[in-house]
Write a structure and sequence with these properties.
seven-stranded mixed sheet; single chain; alpha/beta
Length: 315
């Protein structure tokens, strides 16, 4: 073999083994690359969090600090509204939360339906006492349970949906308190925009009664609130919780009706998505769905957070 052939052979001039120094340099380079990737990831996540904080702060200033006043329009323009309150058991501060439905400053007709499964539920006495204080209110207690799926809230509410006398519904959980102007501000938005199909209100935790309640309060009024406000500000997808929602029964019937959502645990999320994809946009007023932070133990708090994640992940 001639010298030229030897010189042009594969691997000519390259070391036959990797030295310890080369291995050390390669390991250091790999570690630097991993550290850089980790640093960039942290920076991106931090920037995302700061973006959420900034956007949510802007929303707070525009919508909640400078809350929209009532629109001056004829009383006859306001549609009738049916408020549906699903109830099971006696919640902390229930008299105050349920009574807030009777105190709404709404010019139009209002029907209030309380849906209860068990005729022996102690909440029926609380509800009856409230109704007795407002004899002019159109309010009823509906007792009984349907079985259309795995969601107990849907099973309880179905009878109220069937008997509602108005197309515009306000679904409001039993442990939610709303300010007196909430319904009117919500209706004003719907009347101003005919393609607006869902009004929802951000959950606000208050009056914690335990350490676990303080944890729940901290979660709902900080991280959860920022995420909720920011995502809805971008308006690129449906994002709502079912604590306090207004929508049209006819619109819900067009996407399958309330019974069809009994197969989902997070019926609020699925209803929001169905209405969104059928062309109904969502928005919020400057009102809060206030609920007492009445969680009794740390394990109960953890179970609630896990349940939230699971119901949204596996629907």
């Amino acid at each position: 073999m001639n010298a030229g052939a030897a010189h042009n052979s594969p691997g000519a001039g390259m070391p036959s083994v990797i030295t310890a120094a080369d291995a050390t340099r390669m390991s250091l380079n790999s570690s630097l690359i991993s550290a850089n990737l980790a640093a960039y990831t942290i920076l991106v996540l931090a920037a995302f969090q700061w973006l959420l904080i900034f956007v949510s702060h802007c929303v707070l200033q525009r919508r909640y600090v400078r809350r929209r006043p009532f629109v001056d329009r004829p009383t006859d323009d306001y549609p009738g509204v049916t408020i549906i309150r699903p109830v099971k058991g006696v919640d902390h501060g229930m008299q105050r939360t349920l009574e807030s439905s009777f105190l709404q400053e709404y010019p139009g007709p209002v029907e209030i339906l309380f849906a209860v499964e068990d005729p022996d539920d102690l909440a029926i006495e609380v509800i009856s006492n409230i109704i007795a204080r407002y004899p002019k209110a159109q309010a009823r207690v509906l007792i009984g349970k349907d079985n259309v799926g795995i969601n107990p809230k849907v099973n309880n509410m179905l009878k109220a949906f069937d008997q509602a006398q108005n197309d515009l519904l306000w679904i409001c959980d039993s442990n939610v308190y709303t300010d007196p102007g909430t319904l009117r501000r919500s209706a004003d938005l719907l009347l101003d925009n005919k393609r607006l199909g869902v009004i929802h209100h951000v959950v606000f935790s208050e009056s914690p009664t335990s350490f676990a309640g303080m944890l729940d309060n901290a979660f709902l009024v900080t991280n959860h609130c920022r995420m909720y406000l920011a995502i809805n500000a971008f308006g690129i997808a449906s994002c709502l919780m079912g604590k306090s929602n207004l929508y049209y029964k006819s619109a819900l019937d067009n996407v399958g009706g309330i019974a069809s959502f009994g197969q989902y645990l997070a019926e609020d999320n699925m209803i929001g998505q169905a209405l969104w994809h059928s062309g109904w946009s969502h928005t919020m007023t400057g009102d809060l769905a206030r609920q007492p932070a009445d969680i009794g133990s740390f394990s109960e708090y953890c179970s609630r957070r896990i349940r939230w994640v699971r119901t949204r992940k596996y629907n």
